[in-house]
Amino acid sequence: MSWRAFLAHLRLREARAHCDIPCGIYDPLPAQIAAMTVLRMHQLIEGLEKPGPNASKEELDRYENSLSRYVAVKEQHAELCKRELDILWHDYFKPEHLEKYPDLHNLFWNTIKLASKTKQEINKQAAEELVQSVQRIAEIFWETKGVQTHRVQTHMPVGGEYVLPAA
Questions:
Q1: What's the average model confidence in pLDDT over 111-139?
Q2: Which of 6, 72, 124, 156 could pair with 42 in a Cys bridge, judged by C-beta atoms 3.0 to 4.6 Å apart?
Q3: Where are the alpha helices (DSSP H) in 88-103?
Q4: Gyration radius (Cα) of the chain, Å
Q5: Are 67 and 48 a contacting pair, CB within 8 Å?
């Protein structure tokens, strides 16, 4: 019997979560990638040429399809960014980190609010601020582990940098 069939047999719902063991496997990189994706979708939306009043049905369809796909991906990755930040905030960071970084709760609170704002609006500035805030969280994360960081170019169309542990 497969795993899914077994769950269906028991009438249980499948749950997904980062482990609460705690496993000790945490990394801010997925949040950075998600934030960069949000910014990239804003760039693509900004660069999308709106058809004129005499546009053909195909041109309108192409525009609407691209716009709806960019918005959907933007919102998915903003939600992913929020989830990844939530894992770090609630599972990794401890009271001793708050002593060293007293503004940590505000940083997380405001960053998660920025991720929500990027879902609610087409707001490239908010997306840029989201990337910067997630980068700051990444720096603090690695500092708490005693690891120096450096910024590395993404080499992606979005541009920008990732905060990574130094070699």
A1: 97
A2: 124
A3: 95-100
A4: 19
A5: yes
Task: Fill in the DSSP letter of residue 28.
Answer: S
Q: Establish if 14 belongs to a structural domain.
A: no
* pLDDT tens-place string over residues 30-89: 999 999 999 999 999 999 999 999 999 999 999 999 999 999 999 999 999 999 999 999
Question: CA 163, CA 131: separation in Å to the nearest integer?
Answer: 11
Distance from C-alpha of 143 to C-alpha of 107, rounded to nearest angstrom: 15
Confidence (pTM): 0.86
- Evaluate whether residue 9 is within a structural domain: no
| Domain around 71 | 26-165
In a domain, 6, yes or no: no
The number of folded domains in the chain is: 1
CATH code at position 118 = 1.20.120.400
Contact 29, 139 (CB under 8 A): no
Q: CB–CB of 98/104 below 8 Å?
A: yes
Q: What is d(CA 89, CA 108) in angstroms, rounded to the nearest whole number?
A: 7
Tokens coding 160: 């920008």
Check if the beta carbon of residue 124 is closer than 8 Å to that of residue 46.
yes
In whole angstroms, give the CA distance from residue 17 to residue 3.
17
